Structure formats: structure tokens, C-alpha cells
Amino acid sequence: MNVSTFIAKRYFSSKKSKNFIQILSWVSMIGVAIGTMALIIVLSVFNGLEGVLRSVYQTFDPDLKIESVKGKSFEVDAAFLASLEKLEGVKSLAEVIEDNALVTYRDQQVVVRIKGIEDSYLQANKLDTFLIDGELKLTEGTDNFAILGAGVAYELGVLLDSDMYDVQIVYPKKVRPGTVTTGSPVRRVRVKPAAAFSVETAYDESLVLVPLRVAKRVMDYKNRRTSIELYLEDDASLRKVKSALKALLGTEFNVLDSDEQHAELLRAVKLEKLFVYIGLTFITLIASFNIFFSLSMLAIEKRRDIAVLFAAGATKQMVKGIFLKQGVIIGFVGCLAGLFLGLTFCILQHEYGIIGLGMSSSVVNSYPVKIVWLDFLWVGLSIFIITILTAYRPAVLASKVNPIAHLD
């Protein structure tokens, strides 16, 4: 064993002659442990939230979504749709018309996102898992129905059990510059409320699903669609189907998987996770200043020992190494304890949901956690760097002890 390592271990394991130094060492380890545990728990919660978002969107959204690169809509025909359906791995597709519109119900009104869909959308989508009231249906004979997000239904005060009132969709007509309009400047179409669903706040408070024929009529889209949503076979390769679609469609269309459909939101979660990591790392750095004070006090106490080492032929680098390794040992023990405590808490939270969200949810009732081992590596590396930074100055001071002044 290296001499400096042996002496550092002896200093760490032996009882300090000054009780205050021993207390500082323990406080240092506890501070590092708490900071490490907090980092692991918070990062795991962010991983869990990201996983929940992905699972929700992957359940509600299509496997792949085709959008136009230029403009918000594009023309489709039977040949175009047939070429998509013939691709290997494609189970079904759904034409979609989506745009903002005003909806009214009795004396209430709200701006929402109208999404015109076909019955095939309901067959392929797992919307029934998010149904909270009513019946999932779009048409029944000549009647048209709307499926509303729970937030929209609440805002409008929709009575799903009553047929007395309809939901009215209001959309402005397209007017060319310089033309004079006659009659109403808006189109109005009535639909009956059929059901309410709850997926996620962004959907619940804005989305209303209506039959495709209703969206075509109120928005005057005719043969134009805002997107085509594709659902794949269970054993199909998403990557291969996506590559085939890109080769077929060329550069005029974007082919988006689930993550790409919500790229901004997932990017925001990752960015927030990064800033939280940086913030907690700085807090751990502040807590680790106790290592600085502990080693500084130890260097003062061990001046005679250091002088003896110099007299025996020790170099400044060796003395500096003793105190650096002493700091590393304190940080390592604290970090190891923090990693263990953080891992234990995350496992308990995952299995038993110790800390709840404080609100009812159809998705999760407690804070989700997901253990990513790469986080442990980054946290451990951060603690190591912090320990070196806080231990370096006391180690330098210890290596500058004058042996003559302390040998008497």
C-alpha cells in the first residue's frame, strides 16, 4: 500500500485528539451523503416523469405521424393513401384535420383544438383507457358526436346525460383580400357531446375530437388534411417503417415518431433536469466546505507529525497526497452512503408510492421514479470533483509546514 494512502486511512479511522475535528469530519460526510441522496432522488423523479409522459403519449398518439414540411395541410387522394397502407408493417392509418376553433355550449364558449378523425382512429387508438364518462362514438346515422377533453367539458359545463343542448363549432371563413363577404363571416356546425376523456393537462384543456366529415365541412378542407396518423403491427420495426416512409414521401413531408411529436416538451423536461442537477451540485459543493474546514483543522493539529515526516525524507507531494486522499476518503464514504440511501428510497417509492402527488390522477398517484445508472456515474463524478476542489487548499497548506518550527 502507498505510504500516503496508509497514513490518510489511519487519520480517517483513528480517533482525533480534538473532538471538534472529528465532529467536522462526520458533518462533512453527512453533508456529502445528503447532497448525493438528494441528487439521485431528484434525478430519478425527473426520469420517472419523463417515462410517464412517454407512456401516456405513446398510448394516446400514433406510432408515426406524417405532416407537410410547408404549410399546415396537404392534399390527399386514394392512390396516396393506398401507397401508405401497402407499406410493410403498417396496420392502419387515419386521416386527420386539426385546427383551432371556437366552441360554444349554452351560454359558455372556449377556444379549443378541433381534431377531425375517422372511426379507424378510435379502433386503433387506446382512447378507451382514458375515458371518464360517456360513450366513445363519432357518428350514429346522420348524427355527429364530439368527444371532449375533461377540462373542455368542465369549462363548458357539458351535460353528457342530456340531449337538450348541442356543442356548436365556430370557424372563420377564408376570405380573399379585396373581396366583399355576404352573409355570416363564420361557419357553424352542431355536434352532440358523447364522452369526456382525461389524458394529460395539455390535451384535457384543449382537445375536442369530432368526425372527419364535420371538420371538413366547418373548416372547408375538402381533400386537404393536416396529418396522416399511422399505426403499426405489433412486431413491426418502427425504425424500418419510418425509413421506408421517408424514402416514399421524399423531402416534402416530415415523418414523426412519438418523441418527435412532443420534442419541445421532452426537451424542456431534460433542460429542467439539467438545471436542477447543476443547482443541487452547487448546494452539495457548499455543504462540502466542511471538508475544507475539517482538513484545515487536521493540518494544524498534525503539524508535528508532518514535520516528522519531512525529517524522515517525505516530500511535499507526499504530504499533499495524504490530505488530498483524506478528503477523497471522506467524500467517498459520504457519496457511497448517499448513493445507497438514494437508491433505497427510489426502490421504496417505486414499489410502495411513499410520497403521493397530492391529487387524484388517472395516470399515476405518486411521484414516479426511474433509476438510470448513468445518473449514479455523473453524481459520483461530481462528488469526486467537489471533494478534490475542497481538499486541495488544505493539502497545499499542509505541504508548506516548516519542519524546523515544529520539531522541539
Structure description:
The chain has 408 residues and is α+β, with helices and mostly antiparallel strands. It has two domains: 3-58 and 265-406, no CATH class; 62-261, no CATH class. The chain is built from 14 helices and 13 strands. It has helices at residues 3-13, 19-60, 78-85, 119-124, 150-156, 201-204, 212-219, 238-249, 258-261, 263-287, 289-301, 303-311, 316-352, 373-399, and strands at residues 64-68, 74-75, 90-105, 108-117, 131-134, 139-140, 143-149, 167-172, 186-197, 207-211, 224-225, 227-232, 253-256. The strands form two sheets. It has a six-stranded mixed β-barrel with strand order 3-4-10-7-9-8. Strands 2-11 form a two-stranded antiparallel sheet. A hairpin with a 2-residue loop joins strand 3 (90-105) and strand 4. Helix 2 packs antiparallel against helix 11 (289-301), helix 2 packs antiparallel against helix 14 (373-399) and helix 11 packs parallel to helix 14. The longest helix is centred in the first third of the chain and has 42 residues, at 19-60. The protein is elongated and about 100 Å long. The model has no long low-confidence stretch (mean pLDDT 83).
Let me know the largest β-sheet: 6 strands, mixed, barrel
Rounded to an integer in angstroms, the radius of gyration calculated over CA atoms is 32 Å
Work out the oligomeric state of the chains in this entry: single chain
Q: How would you sum up the global shape?
A: elongated
Treating each run of at least 4 consecutive H or I residues as one helix, how many helices? Answer: 14
What is the helix content?
A: 40-55%
Strand and helix order: HHEEHEEHEEEHEEHEHEEHEHHHHHH
Distance between the termini: 31 Å
Taken together, the total number of domains comes to: 2
Percentage of β-strand residues? 15-25%
GO cellular component, one term: plasma membrane protein complex
Domain MacB-like periplasmic core: 25-247
Pfam families: FtsX, MacB_PCD
Family: Belongs to the ABC-4 integral membrane protein family. LolC/E subfamily.
